[in-house]
Structure formats: structure tokens, C-alpha cells
Amino acid sequence: MRPEHTPLQPGARVALICPSSPAPPGLVRGAVAQLLEWGFEPVMGPNATARHPRAAYLAGTDKQRAADLQWAWCDPDIDGVFCMRGGYGATRILDLLDVDALRAARRKPIFGSSDVTAVAEFWRERLDRGFWLAPMIATAELLDDEIAKAGLTAALFEPAAGRTYTSSIASSIVQGQATGPLIGGNLSVLAMTIGARGRPTLDNSGAIALLEDVTEDTYRIDGFFTTLLRSGWFDGVAAIALGSWLDCGPLDEIRALAEEHLSPLGVPIVWELGFGHGPGAHSIPLGATATLYADDAPRLQLSGD
User: Which of 37, 61, 158, 161 stands 20 to 30 A from 50 (CA)?
Assistant: First the structure.
């Protein structure tokens, strides 16, 4: 496993930042209390509770949010980084980051999902670093969900190697088996990052793509799949695991759309593997090597290395 997937130790100093939208104060307090209960020392980013002067949907200015992410990753006294919530705005800060300083910094676990997929993709492409695709620490989806919380607890304190992920409603769209590094996250944000950089700068050949979304109509998901397909993002992927589609179009429509767009790729595809915005969401280490089994008992198993 990559160093950024190794367990944290009690007493670790962990940063709390908001790269996208602001986190409600009550949920921030809940996040701090949870981290203290786990035995960590939470450290708020200097701009973690800032607000953008114009846009209420942004947690501070782009420079403030970029500065907090840069600080959290580069400060040698910070052992792990928690992005408190998603929303919107992470793509706006990517061009403000000092890539050389980020590359030179000590590797550490960083946790987030949803809009923070933009940061995860940047970490993969520009830094060659892993990222925990995990429920956000300052959200009810984590704090009020004991199953999701147990999954994040395991990610924090237990070795990831050999872990298996599945769900009670997982099924196979295209059967098969494939092994490769895990990439992906939120579908709409991945499509947004394509627009920020043109064609992919990183070869996705041999990777297992994880995809999910929330509150998107069927036609918009259609557009996101089309964008990634036309950009070449799917070229050479070894397999695809689909997660939850909470409050999106009807699930039968989303599944039929996924079959229409993705089945022609001829790779194993699993439906609803239990990660994303849905209840009991898994915490999965992007960048780790895993095997996707698309059979009568669909599952994703991390390598034992």
C-alpha cells in the first residue's frame, strides 16, 4: 500500500479544511468531537470557516481554500488531512496550488469525496499520490451513519491490504475479473476536471474506475459519461465499479444508461458496490491495487501487498 494509505496513530495531528463549500458550524463541531473521540488532535485550517464575499456556496475565496489545502499537505507537523464537506468549488483552486512544494512534502492520508474528487484526481495526475475516497467528516452522512463511520474508522486504524468491499444490492452488468489501481470518484466532477485540462495527461490503461453521483438527472449523467468517453478517460480501463446514485434519476434508467455507454468497452462492470453518497458508504483507497470480481457475488478486494 502507498504511504498515504497507512493507518494513523492515536495522538496524530489532523487538519480540517474546506476546499469546496462551507461546512455548517454544528457539523464542524461534530467532526471535531468525533476526531477527539478517535484520539486525534484536530487542527482547523486557518480559513476552514471562512466564507466567500460573493458566493455563499464557496468556503472562502479560491486563494484561501487553496492555501489551506497547501498548508495541510505541506506542514510537517500535520499527519493527516480531512476535507470536511463537498458541495462545489474544488476545481477552482487547482491552478493555485504549488505543485513542486506538494510533491516535496511528506506523504500522508487525505480523506474526502464528492466535489473533492477534483483534488483526488489532481493528486493522482500531478503528484502520483493516493487518496481515501471516504464520506466527509463534517456531514450527517458520516456522523449519523454508524456503518459509514465504522468503515472510516477501519480506514484510519487498520491496514487496508486485503480488505473486501461489496453491498447487499451489488450485481454484475458485464461479468469478468480484473486487477489494477483504483481511480475515479464523483462522475460529474471527473467530467468537470476534463474541461480544466483538455485530454487526460495520465494513461488510465489497466485501472479500475470507480464512479458514482448524487442529485443528477438522467440526461446529465448521460452527458457526463459522454464527456469522459469522448475525452479518452475510459481508454484502456480494466474494469468499472459503479457506486450509489442517490437522488439521481430513476435507478433503472441510470443502470440502463450505464449499460448503453459502458458495456461496449468490453470490461467487467459491477453495479452499486456501496461507495458514494448512499447510506453506509465505504471508505476506499484510490491508488491502491485491487481486483474487481464481476460474478454472482460482486466484490472489490484490495491487494495483500
Answer: 37
